[in-house]
Specification:
- It is a single chain.
- The chain is mainly α.
- The protein has 16 helices and no strands.
- The protein is 76% helix and 0% strand.
- The longest helix is centred in the first third of the chain and has 44 residues.
- The relative contact order is 0.17.
């Protein structure tokens, strides 16, 4: 894997490309990655396709939002440290600003029938979108019977109330043991060791506790951005009581109707809890680890890609992440499907998503229309 950039790209060009992607990339991480490949491989030939795929694979070996980390990798490859910062920040900024504006509107007008109707129709669609993502990820992640059993055990543990970070750490260790990979005496596994960082969090609401909660989540979250739901619910709804189930689902819904990283759900939550300052602090907290991990992992990428131990641990962590995602989807589904119409919306959305190739943003828009009509009828 080539880690050194071959030629320099002007920072202005990087900024324009990733501002464009951050403003137009609706539909989740898979869509972000496809659009990024079109821009940096096909149109501008900044990277070869094999190199692009290498960087994509590397993002799966570290915590954080994959599409954002891929943007950061591309920026570093093309313009070094300044490029790393510019590409990542420009990809995040449009979504963060849009979500902050929507959070203001939600706080200001959230009680009005129109806003309530929008969210009424969007929430069941969001559940269907998450279910589709969960299904696709499971097909890729559950590679063996032992991993399937590990996923079942993780689901039971989470339902019994075991801390999600402990479940993730145990999943990584157990996957190594189940794989039969020999662990050399001097080999250490940074991924599993990382799971113990920030296992406990603050109990009082304030800007610093808010920052630390999201810094912890950004530091330990593997898998799809949808796994973020499990961590947000465990910390902010169950443990700290800062959000209600409805507010969390509303935050997820807003994340679905906006472009850019799903992790900007944190921006919405931060605004609800602390206004503009809270939105800024939450956004910095959840995205800062991604910049640090990409920067620090550059020299470790050959080791991580070639280490059987790291590979086995990641397999286990990915399966456990999906177990967390499944549990929280079931829990949030109970809040979203409150009557026959919302059940029909969720089922119809799932059928369309599973049977046809359609951008999820269109379904979210359709759900919003149904919700608006319902609120006025």
């Amino acid at each position: 894997m080539t880690l050194e950039r071959r030629s320099s790209t002007p920072l202005r060009d990087l900024a324009l490309v990733f501002l464009k992607l951050g403003t137009t990339s609706f539909g989740g991480p898979a869509v972000h990655i496809a659009m990024m490949e079109e821009e940096v491989v096909v149109r501008r030939q900044w990277l070869g396709r094999a190199e692009f795929l290498d960087y994509l694979g590397a993002t799966n070996l570290i915590p954080g939002p994959n599409s954002t980390e891929l943007a950061i990798h591309v920026g570093q490859a093309r313009a070094g440290w300044p490029g790393l910062l510019v590409a990542g920040a420009c990809f995040i900024l449009p979504a963060a600003l849009i979500v902050t504006a929507l959070a203001w509107a939600y706080v200001t007008f959230g009680g009005l029938p129109a806003a309530t109707g929008l969210l009424y129709g969007i929430k069941p669609v969001v559940i269907a979108i998450v279910l589709q993502a969960l299904y696709k990820l499971m097909r890729a992640a559950v590679k063996s019977v032992p991993l399937a059993l590990l996923g079942v055990a993780a689901t039971i543990a989470v339902l019994l109330g075991v801390n999600e970070l402990l479940v993730l750490a145990a999943g990584g260790v157990l996957a190594i043991l189940l794989s039969g990979v020999r662990w050399p005496r001097r080999e250490q596994l940074p991924i599993v060791a990382l799971m113990t960082v920030g296992a406990t969090g603050p109990t009082a609401l304030g800007l610093m506790p808010l920052f630390l909660v999201f810094l912890k989540i950004g530091s330990v979250l593997f898998g799809s951005g949808y796994v973020l739901l499990a961590f947000l619910r465990a910390d902010l709804v169950v443990r700290l009581g800062w959000l209600t189930e409805r507010q969390l689902l509303d935050a997820v819904a807003v994340g679905q109707v906006t472009p850019g990283p799903v992790f900007t759900t944190a921006t919405f939550v931060g605004y609800l809890l602390g206004g503009n300052a809270g939105a800024l602090v939450a956004t910095l907290g959840i995205f800062l680890p991604a910049f640090c991990f990409v920067a620090l992992s550059a020299r470790l990428l050959p080791y991580l890609n070639n280490s059987p131990v790291a590979r086995a641990a990641l397999d286990g962590i990915n399966v456990v992440s999906l177990a967390l995602m499944a549990v929280v989807t079931w829990q949030l589904g109970r809040s979203a499907m409150v009557d026959p119409l919302t059940v029909v919306l969720a089922v119809a959305s799932a059928v369309v998503l599973f049977r046809y190739r359609i951008n999820s943003a269109w379904l979210v828009a359709a759900g919003a229309v149904v919700g608006l009509v319902h609120s006025f009828v």
